[in-house]
Amino acid sequence: MPKGRALTRAGAQPGDLVYITGHPGDAAAGLKLLQAGKADMQHPCVRRFAYPEPRLAAGEALRGLASAAIDVSDGLLADLAHLTEARHHGAKLALDKLPLSPELQQLHGQDEACRLALTGGDDYELCFTVHAAQASAVEQRMKETGCPVACIGSIEAPPGIHCVDAAGRLHEYPHLGHRHF
Q1: What are the helix (H) ranges across 36-101?
Q2: What is the residue extent of each domain of the chain?
Q3: Which of 3, 30, 65, 86 has the most crowded CB, counting CB atoms within 10 A?
Q4: Which fold is adopted by the domain 17-25+55-171?
Q5: Cα dihedral angle (106, 100, 82, 175), rounded to 10 degrees?
C-alpha cells in the first residue's frame, strides 16, 4: 500500500454520504440456516457465511476518494458506530436503501432481512463515506471493480445512528451487533 494512502475510520464529516458494498445480512442468514441444521452449502447465504470474500479490490479503488471506511464484521450498525465515533458524529440511514439480497428477503421477509442487514455480522463488506462531490466517481470505480455498492445514508453532526424508513419514521435497533467486550 502506498504510504499515507490507507483508508481509516477518522475522516467522515457531516454531509458525507454513507455507502455499503454487497449485500449485508446474507452471512447472518447463512449462519441461521447452519444453526437450524439446514446446511446446504450451495445456498448463497450459507456460502457468504462459510466462504467470506473481503472486498480488497473495492478498498484499493476507494483510495483517494473515500473519506473514511471500515469493514463490516460486527454488523453494519456496530461498525458504522465505530466509524462515526472516531469524529464524534452520527449518521442517518435510509432503511429502504439497504441492498438486501433476494435470497435474504425470501428467507426472512423484509423486516427481519433489514434487521439482519443492520445487526448481523461476518459480512466483510465495506462501509465507507464519501464527500457528495465524489459520489459519481466512487460509483464508477465500484462498477469497474464489479463490486455492487449502494448509498444508504449520510453523516450528520449530532452523535448517534438514526434509521428511518421511506415514510420518515424512526426505527430503533437496541442490539447494534457483536460487542467484543
Answers
A1: 44-50, 56-62, 76-85
A2: 17-25+55-171
A3: 30
A4: Phosphoribosyl-aminoimidazole Synthetase; Chain A, domain 2 (3.90.650)
A5: -30
